[in-house]
Prior knowledge:
The protein is mainly beta. 4% of the residues lie in helices and 36% in strands. The strands form 2 sheets. The chain has a 3-stranded antiparallel sheet, with no helix packed on it. Strands 1-4 form a two-stranded antiparallel sheet.
Amino acid sequence: xxxNPPSGGNDEDGxxxxxxxxFLDTNTSFSLEVTLTNLLSADSYLYAWIDFDGDxxxxxxxxxxxxxxxxxxxxxxxxxxxxxxGSGADVVxxxxxxxxxxxxxxx
Length: 107
């Protein structure tokens, strides 16, 4: 379960958290739609981690990313994909956390 942030603490308004409602610890993959805007004339980058094992760390096997092309417009939907089986991530049932970073910096 992904907890709802405290009132006023939600800065990830491009993510509908109900997408996590049907996630099971037996899933071998997971996709997350993110609504964003890239009005730059260059690529931007979407980085994300889900703490699948609930250990409080965002590990390399819990990471995914994608390149967002230039000038995608306002409210563009991009899909992040995790290949849980392929990455070897351990999935532990229970509450966990996600970190999403959207940036023009590719490092």
